[in-house]
Amino acid sequence: MNLLSRLRDSFETLNIDGILVNSSTNRRYLTGFTGTAGIVLISKNDARLLTDFRYTKQAEEQVDEFTVKQIEKNNTSEIAKHLQEMGIAKLGFEEEHLTYAQHKNFQNTFAAKLVPTKLFVESFRMQKSSQEIKFIKEAVNVTDEAFNHILQVIKIGMTEQEVANELEQYIKTAGFAPSKSSMVVASGARSALPHGIASDKKIENGDMVTMDFGALSQDYCSDMTRTVSVGEPPSQLKEIYSIVHKALAECLNSLKPNLTIKELDHIIREPIEKAGYGEKFGHGAGHGIGLDVHEELFITSNSTKRLLPNMVMTIEPGIYIPGLGGVRIEDDVLITENGCEVLTMSPKNLIVL
Prior knowledge:
The protein is built from eleven helices and 19 strands. By secondary structure, it is an alpha+beta fold. The protein folds into two domains: 3-125, Creatine Amidinohydrolase, Chain A, domain 1, CATH 3.40.350; 130-342, Creatinase/methionine aminopeptidase superfamily (Creatine Amidinohydrolase, Alpha-Beta Complex), CATH 3.90.230. Strands 4-3-2-1-5-6 form a six-stranded mixed sheet, sandwiched between helices. Helix 8 (130-151) packs across helix 9 (160-173) and helix 10 runs antiparallel to helix 11. The radius of gyration is 23 Å and the shape is elongated. The N and C termini lie far apart (52 Å). The mean pLDDT is 96.
């Protein structure tokens, strides 16, 4: 069953007879269209991509299962006409992506009843196709290569920004784009900042350096974190590294289909909590990756979801001590029929440069 058929099978449960998709990422996922403007309309027997003059030719070349229709940019009345032609009376919309102003405009213009949907397209994006997995693996591979390269370059006196620039340039030279997220390069005491964006701080002897970065292949993301030491690190940071490494290893050994996300969150956090650092691990334990670097599903203690084959996600335990530094190790993993495949091949043992 193709994607459109699977989407339509959900209409009855949602009490809708059509869906309007305005999220740029969801539009890209559904249609393959990479332009920056467009609305997707799907009914029980029709599927249209509405875009303006700038993108009609591009859309016609990129889109297969959708009929491309040209409309005037931001013309809600034209969208209303297409809804009427498609026979949509109960229109689902993406509640996470439609602004209040847009909703008000639609409500005043459309004859169709507006019905909010929650993470509708995102729920289909969680399990990847073989083609999507191929693109993610390509992005992961160049990220691994960039990490191996930076190990030969990074040294005392180099700034965090210079490290970030070197990683970015390597990825670009290899023919890929860097991740959409700002690159994290945080050294010394700054490594206690989970999202410490690269600064002009110079790397000093004994600094832990956390690097969180990735690449894009056909818009699909990788997302890896490694922490290395430039010179011998303080003993407490070596201890922390060992704890984080253990948490990641135990988690990877536990990954399999049908494991609940709540259980997974507990497995990741338990070794860190037992070591007395639970309060120093204050962020999410992982997330899905795909067209977005952070996407469903998210590993949280209150999630009701379960792991399914072909989900691709990160596992990223960390410990952060203000004034001293921090450690995070993040792998990209593919859930398989019987367990998982670790996609990131970069070494996880403590590297002292």
